[in-house]
Amino acid sequence: MDARSGGAATLLSALNEACEDFQRYGQQIAAIHDAVHWELIGRIGRVGPGESPFALVGVVLRYERTTVDLGVDLWVREGAFEVSGYVTIDGRRMLIDLPDVLTSDVDEAIAALREYTRRLCAHRDVLEEVA
């Protein structure tokens, strides 16, 4: 395996690990709050033809009439990676907006993905913050 293949394999592995972390997070929040319904988000693709490729990992929490989205996006734009992390309420209000990380180094992009996943999954009281 050459360096590019190794980097791609490591990136896919890190995306899978992030999905697993968000899945555990959704399960833990649902165990604390019986009325919470959660759904894992994991997408890889393009928004449209000719658009930049992206990966999105996260979880959606539905509680009463409120929807909370926690996620990390990774885009590939002009030969660089852009990683962002966020928590939104009802698709409108931003509760957490982590600064974008721009890098051409796949290892730095993976480190940002892992750090943002860790930081978002550390918010155990997200529903209390919303209420």
Summarize it.
Helix content is 39%, strand content 42%. It contains three helices and five strands.
Account of the 3D structure:
Helix 1 runs parallel beside helix 2. The longest helix is centred in the N-terminal third of the chain and has 30 residues, at 3-32. It contains three helices and five strands; from the N terminus they run H-E-E-E-E-E-H-H. It is globular and about 45 Å long. It is α+β, with helices and mostly antiparallel strands and 131 residues long. It has a five-stranded antiparallel beta sheet. It has helices at 3-32, 106-121, 126-130; strands at residues 36-46, 53-63, 66-77, 80-89, 93-103. Helices cover 39% and strands 42% of the residues.
The average pLDDT value, as a whole number, equals: 90
Distance between the termini: 50 Å
Major sheet size, sense and barrel closure:
5 strands, antiparallel
Strand content: 35-45%
Helical coverage, percent range: 25-40%
Q: State the helix count.
A: 3
- The rough form would be described as globular
Low-confidence stretches: none
Structural class: alpha+beta
Could you give the count of β-strands? 5
Radius of gyration: 15 Å
For the biggest β-sheet, the strand order reads 1-2-3-4-5
Taken in chain order, the helices and strands follow as: HEEEEEHH
